[in-house]
What we know:
By secondary structure, the protein is of the alpha/beta class. It folds into two domains: 3-178 and 294-312, Rossmann fold, CATH 3.40.50.150; 181-290, DNA Methylase, Chain A, domain 2. 31% of the residues lie in helices and 17% in strands. It contains eleven helices and ten strands. The protein has helices at 13-20, 33-42, 57-61, 89-94, 101-112, 130-140, 181-184, 206-213, 263-268, 282-290, 295-312, and strands at 3-7, 24-29, 47-48, 68-71, 116-122, 146-151, 162-167, 220-226, 229-236, 252-253. It has a seven-stranded mixed β-sheet, sandwiched between helices. β8 (220-226) and β9 (229-236) form a beta hairpin. 45% of the residues are buried.
Amino acid sequence: MYNVFDLFAGGGGFGLGFRMAGFRIIAAVELDRDAARTYSANHNTVVIQEDIRNVDHRDLSRFGEPDVVIGSPPCEPFTAANPNRLEDPVDRLYLDPNGQLTLEFVRLVKALKPKVFILENVAPLAEEPLRQYVEREFRLAGYVSYFNVLHAEDYGVPSRRRRVFISNIKLKPPRRKTTTVREALSNMPPPDGGDLPNHETVTLSVRKLEKIAKLKPGESLSKFRGAEGSYGNFIRLIWDDVAPTVMGSRRFVHPEEHRVLTVREQARLMGYPDSYHFLGSRDSQYNQVGESVPPPLAHLIALEVRKYLDSTV
C-alpha cells in the first residue's frame, strides 16, 4: 500500500479519491477548523490543524515516508472569480500571502522527496507567465513538472470544473460517461427527512423565494463580480445538463422546486458519497464542498498514479 501526505487538505475530497484507489493517507494538514474536523470524521488518519508555514517536513516524517504528496493551496490569488486578485500574475505567486502558500507546497515536496507530487489549483496557474515560474520552483526542488488541465465533467462529475493538476508525471485518466443533474439528484428524499447528513432546508426570505419561483432553467437570480466578468448565483439547474462550477459562495436552485439545494445535494454535484459527513456551520459546509477536488476525478487520478508507481517497483 502506498503512503500519501495530504496538504491543504480541506474537507478531504482529494484524499477520498486516493483512499478509494487503495492508498493510505498517513497524515493531512489543514488550517480551517471545520474542514479539519470534517477530514478527521471521514478519514482514519492524523489531521494536523496548523498553518502550513509552521509545518516542518520533520513534523510529517514522524508519521512515515510518503510515496505521494497531494495538495490544493488556496486558489483565490489566481482565480478570475476573485475581483481583488493582484494585477501582475507573478505578484499573485510571490507577493500575495495566499499565493505564497503554493511555494510552501513546493518547500515541503523538496524536503519530503516523494515519488509523485500533485498540486491542484485553478487553470490560470498553468498559463504564462505564471507557468514558467512554477516550473522553475519545482525544478529547483529537483522535479520536472507537467501541467495537466482536466475538466471534471469529462470524468463523470455532474458539474463543470476546469482545474490544473501540476505533477511530476503526466496524468491522462480515461474519460467517463457524462453524469447529468437528473442522475446526480435522483432518489433524493425531501430535505429534512430521512437519514442523509447535511440535507437540511436552507431558510430564505419570502421575497427571495418569490423571485426564485420565477426563475426558468439556466437563469440566475443574481450575479457577483470577478476579475474577468461576472458569475451567476442562485442559478436554477437544468435537469439534463451538468451543473455549473460548484463554488463555496455559489448557491443553486432546484430544477423544479422553488428552493436552494441543500449541502448534500451540492455535494452530490461534486460526486461525494452520501455517507460523507460535513461538519461546521452551514456556510462552512458549502465552502468545504465547493473548494474541494471532486472525489470521482481524484479517484481516477489516483489510479493513474498507482499505475505509475507499480511500474517503477
